[in-house]
Amino acid sequence: MNPRRVVITGTGAVCAAGRDPPSILEAIRAGRSAIAPIRQWDASGWPMQTAGEISDLNPRALVDDRKLHKLIRRTDLFGLYAADRAIDASGLAAYRAALEPEAALEYSDRTGVYVGSGGGSYESQYDYFPLLTAAQDKLPAFGRELSSSVNPMWLLRTLPNNVLGHIGIRHGFKGANACITNHSIGGTLAVIEAREALRTGEADRALAVGHDAPIEPQMVLYYHDVGLLAKDTIRPFDARRDGSLFGEGAAALALETEDSARKRNAPILGEVLGGGSATDAQGLLAIRDDGDALARAIESALADAGIRAAEVGMIAAHGNGTPQSDASEAAAIRRVFGESAPPATAFKWAFGHLIAAAGIIEAVLALESLRQHVVPGVATYAVADPGCAGVPVAAEPQSPRGDVALVLCRGFAGTNAALLLRAVS
Amino acid sequence: MAARRRVAITGLGLVTPVGNDVAATWAALLACKSGGAAISLFDASGFPVRIAAEVKDFDPAEVIGDRKLLKFANRSHGFALAAAEQALADADIRPMPATGNRWGCAVGTGMMGVDFAELVAVHEHSAAGGELDATRLLTDASANNPLVFCRSQSTTGLSLLTRRHDIRGYATSVHTACASGGQAIGTALKLIRRGAVDYALAGGFDSMISPVGIAGFCLLSALSVDNEMPERASRPFDATRNGFLLGEGAGFLVLEEWESARRRGAHIYAELAGDGNSLSSYRITDSPPDGDGPIQSMRQALADAGATIDDVDYINAHGTSTFMNDRSESAAIRAVFASRVKDVAVSSTKSSMGHLIAAAGAVEVAICALAIHNGELPVNANLREQDPECDLALVRDVPERRRVRIAMSNSFGFGVSNSCVCLRRPDAVDGAGFRA
Q1: Mean pLDDT of B181-200
Q2: Across the interface, which of A129, A175, A182 has its CB nearest the CB of B132?
Q3: Which range of residues forms the domain containing residue B132?
Q4: B326 and B187 in one domain?
Q5: Chain B partners of A206 at a C-beta cutoff of 8 Å?
Q6: What is the mean pLDDT of chain B?
Q7: CB contact under 8 A, A182 and B129
Q8: How far apart are CA A23 and CA A12, in angstroms?
């Protein structure tokens, strides 16, 4: 036993397809997509009208803290909910309650929190619209009327690191931490950095969380204008694919050193084996056709984990459904795996692209898939694209080749992250 | 066990309210010059706070020349590009086609959002009544302008830096409010230590001196309202302090694996020796009165550096000049240093520069490197009547000559994150044989 091996002792997830990992995976295995017409605003006249929204949202049912809701936004609600579920499942906080006061303090100081956050929204600035109207766009009046128009907590509600802070406050965790605002790879990097903190002894336990709520009018419009959005369906690696669609939600992993988990007889669901990240450095939106940085991220994850490509049992691809990203992702997979890549899937077709939470929710679902010994089919996949050859994706379920999943994630600024997980059944 | 990789600081770049490069900033700090003045970037006449520490006479095009790239940059990104350029030139090394994969980038980034002019434009076209009309947004020029989009993403700064310098390794952006810069430097330290990269460009950048930025802090009553004396508004640890002075700017460092920096004969300012992070988990805006949280981050940073309190000669304090922070931080420093507290020199350079928010930690780590390099400690400016609750050995009135073995930089953020970074003088490293 390696005392600093990093194991997974709890998970949580919420997205349009469900509010816990098993029910989300059940929807995926049943071929059900939760992509539906946008309801947060009247999008009936819009050229793009669908996304994976979490419907029938009752904030108090997700996080039962009336006062807190005045201090957080929609994205934070999801993050805190997923974190609570992972903490409950792992028993991380409950275990502390039984410790002597001195030991409990030490336990809290040695429990870290790592969060991948969307980094902000356009809508948060709209809170100034009524003031701009009242001030008739005149700055002196804007300044004078400020405190009578805008919520004094505006800045706090807008902080990108709210989930980090409120997990700390709600659960009393006080250890090593980070809030990573690195677009789509933020959630994956939260897992990678949390694992490093445990591996190097900065902490003994850590929560890794990713959360985002990108479905807002101005964001949707920009993504549409730069050609990233599909008409109505995400078709990863399919010849007919025409873009991605937004989703929203969060996921969390409770991580511990094996030592910490064994000491308190925690359920061990799996292990984080390693991770890697690299960038194409081509600018905010541009990516290389050869998938160079993604291939390097995979290679460094394999080296970090100390395993060979042949030991990977399944790939949870980024598969965001844009023509260029999927083709270059396939190029990277071919470079690493040649013609013998393990069975692959992609999850976004079922609930949309969760941006900062995308990589981490897909890691949680990959772990759940391995535990159920299945590589779920992609229900929207039908027509193979020769440009995506080498990615063994299928409409029907496949069987994993082993107990290790490679989870891929790509974001703006040409960033790429690869994560390797092992499931314990 | 193999020796842990050490990390050298070999290049510095600064764009601050008191100077647009390292030399000018350092000279201004030693001279206690203040960056505070009446706000010139917009008409602040109606605001409760009408002062800030702005970066002055700055044109990023003069520094980096690439006007096309700057079309994708907002004000804070201009600071970042300029400070990064200085740091790489200072280090005399930059990513090459053969080495770009081994370079990483870690940045502390401010909050995302559009510039105020764009917000006003969207308001005029699509929300004139005060509420957004989503249908009107479809024909809104700002909401359909890809340049506005590209300038307003949380990874815009990261994308500009990695593209310009061809940095192709692990690249990341962090945000823990006022602790962002320190956490970015700590992230880069760990990337080099664990071998994910061999070199890193690390820093922070921010500019919140805008109607919405000032408004956010005004609403929280966090800023000094000394509109008639902007140069004295920031007075950390003074009994009359009444809030912080909002600054802006960027600080960047070039970091390298120690042995390879030595081999190429690089000038090493200091070892980036240790990093500590904690959560206060107290209240989202309030500092814990007893320093709990900051205490742990300082102790961890020292332990991580393989140092003890006896090795520390200088602390660049977070020292925001708010009532709560300065007392909480004083309590933390007292708790950590105990009887040694009188021997450790402390100053907050926010007394001159103001609070650079997401850039603050990175700029102040660079100041610590300069303190070690120059053997001189910058002043805690504007200190007249020291708060008895802040009984630290503050650097008063004039810079202090001192050989610094270990310097510490504190950064504590809204949202409860605390960061502490330790730097060690280079001649204390060679031959020291630290083993992890």
Answers
A1: 98
A2: A129
A3: 116-149
A4: yes
A5: none
A6: 96
A7: no
A8: 11
3-state secondary structure of B206: strand
Same domain for A134 and A101: no
In DSSP terms, A179 is beta-bridged to A115
Known catalytic membership, residue B77: no
What is the reported pLDDT for B431?
56
B69 pLDDT band, cuts 50/70/90, is very high
- DSSP class per residue in A77-119: HHHHHHHHHHHHHHTHHHHHHTS-HHHHHHHHHTEEEEEEE--
Q: What are phi and psi of B170, to 5 degrees?
A: -65, 120
Note the pLDDT tens digit of each residue in B283-326: 887 889 999 999 999 999 999 999 999 999 999 999 999 999 99
pLDDT at A274: 97
Q: Rounded to an integer, what distance in angstroms lies between the CA atom of residue B367 and that of residue B361?
A: 10
Task: Name the residue among A108, A128, A221 with its Cβ closest to that of B137.
Answer: A221
Q: How confident is the model at residue B432 (pLDDT cuts 50, 70, 90)?
A: low
Count H helices and E strands in chain A, helices first: 17, 12
Shared domain check, A299 and A151:
no
Split at pLDDT 50, 70, 90, the class of A1 is low
Task: Reply yes or no on whether B355 is catalytic.
Answer: yes
DSSP B111: -
Whether residue A375 contacts residue A400, with contact meaning beta carbons closer than 8 Å, is answered with yes
Option in B158, B284, B415 nearest A413 (CB)? B158
- B91 and B121 inside one domain: no
Kindly identify which residue of chain A lies nearest to residue B282, measuring between CA atoms: A169
Residues A285 and A333 in one domain: yes
Nearest to B424 by CA among B203, B189, B107: B189
Which tokens go with A357?
A: 């939470």
Which is the catalytic residue, given B77, B318, B368, B422?
A: B318
User: For chains A and B, what is the number of CB pairs under 8 angstroms?
Assistant: 298
B70: contact with A, CB 8 A cutoff: no
- Is pLDDT above 80 for A380? yes
Q: Is B413 on the interface with A (CB under 8 A)?
A: yes
pLDDT range class, residue B237, cuts 50, 70, 90: very high
Q: Specify the amino acid at residue A139.
A: L
Structure confidence at residue B209 (pLDDT): 98
Alpha helices in A172-285 (DSSP H): 186-199, 217-225, 258-263
The CATH number given to whatever domain includes residue A191 is 3.40.47.10
Report yes or no on B305 lying in a domain: yes
**Region A58-73: what's the mean pLDDT?**
92
Contact assessment for residue A232 and residue A63, using Cβ atoms and an 8 Å cutoff: no
Residues A165, A203: Cα–Cα separation, whole Å:
17
Q: What would the DSSP string read from start to end of A355-397? A: GGGHHHHHHHHHHHHHHTT-B---TT--SB-GGGTT--B-SS-
Mode of pairing for the β-strands spanning B248-257 and B393-394: unpaired
Residues B263, B269, B275, B279: is their CA dihedral positive or negative? negative
DSSP B223-284: B---TT-GGGS--TTBTT--SB-BBEEEEEEEEEEHHHHHHTT----EEEEEEEEEE--S-S
Q: Which of residues 281-300 of B touch A (CB under 8 A)?
A: 281-285, 293, 296, 300
| Domain span including residue A226 | 6-120+160-418
Instruction: For chain B, state the CA radius of gyration.
Output: 21
Answer whether B176's CB lies under 8 Å from A84's CB: no
Mean of all residue pLDDT scores within chain A: 96
Domain annotation covers residue A142: yes
Residue A110's nearest CA partner among A170, A172, A164 is A172
